[in-house]
Design brief:
single chain; 227 residues; alpha/beta; 9-stranded mixed beta sheet; 9 strands; binds iron/sulfur cluster
Length: 227
């Protein structure tokens, strides 16, 4: 696998937010979201065998726990990633997979909790989610929308209703996008969409969705990598 970084931190944006978690960040992405904060994953990284990556995970979290596979777009390395995720599961880890859902998700092991980041129009990568993947969602999975505007909110609201997402997944996350050049102060002034505004819209529409803030950006400097 081509790996950008492996590190332990606090899971920041899902129903697992706040838990200690080992992150395995794979190199490469086929999208170019306007607010992407992970552009350093597009190139570089280092080639590691499945055994080397697993050894790093074990060193950071020897007795099981949470492991998040992220990127970039990890499913671009599906051939190597599937056996690695199976090894993690059989070794007692709980595995999260962060993906845009642009690649097929049919072969992801059922035990893996998929966090599918459906791209909204202002990301400049709207309409990249493959609707075929809706059938491969499991009740423990989560769908995330990163929102930068009212346009994005209305897209996400329509998607939730049209595809009856509350009946398909464990959680639907509405997350304000952070400015990709955010640095210094650890507060919501860096959000492209004011969380208070988003909360008001959600309440007005009685949407069964969860407001999700990227808590790692409030704990550490938003510009820091590897946290
Ligand atoms: S899918 Fe993720 S890593 Fe790829 S460009 Fe979008 S935000 Fe960045």
């Amino acid at each position: 696998m081509q790996i950008t970084e492996i590190f332990k931190s606090i899971q920041g944006e899902s129903t697992h937010a706040g838990l200690p978690c080992v992150f395995v960040r794979l190199t490469g992405c086929n999208l170019r979201c306007s607010w992407c904060d992970s552009e350093y994953t597009f190139t570089g990284g280092r080639k590691m065998s499945q055994q080397q990556v697993f050894a790093d995970v074990q060193r950071l979290s020897p007795s099981g726990g949470l492991v998040e596979i992220t990127g970039g777009e990890p499913m671009l390395q599906e051939r190597e990633l599937l056996p690695f995720m199976r090894e993690l599961i059989s070794s007692g880890y709980r595995v999260l997979l962060e993906t845009s859902g642009e690649r097929p998700l049919a072969r992801v092991p059922a035990e893996v909790i998929k966090i599918v980041d459906v791209k909204c129009p202002d990301s400049a990568e709207g309409d990249t989610f493959d609707l075929e993947n809706l059938q491969f969602l499991n009740p423990h999975d989560e769908i995330k929308f990163v929102l930068a505007s009212r346009l994005d909110y209305e897209f996400a609201r329509a998607f939730v209703r049209q595809h009856n997402l509350p009946s398909r997944v464990n959680a639907i996350l509405f997350s304000p996008a952070f400015r990709k050049d955010a640095a210094g102060s650890r507060d919501s002034s860096h959000c492209l969409l004011d969380p208070q505004q988003l909360a008001n819209w959600m309440l007005a529409d009685n949407l069964p969705v969860r407001l999700s803030l990227q808590i790692h950006k409030f704990i550490w400097d938003p510009a820091l990598k590897g946290v």
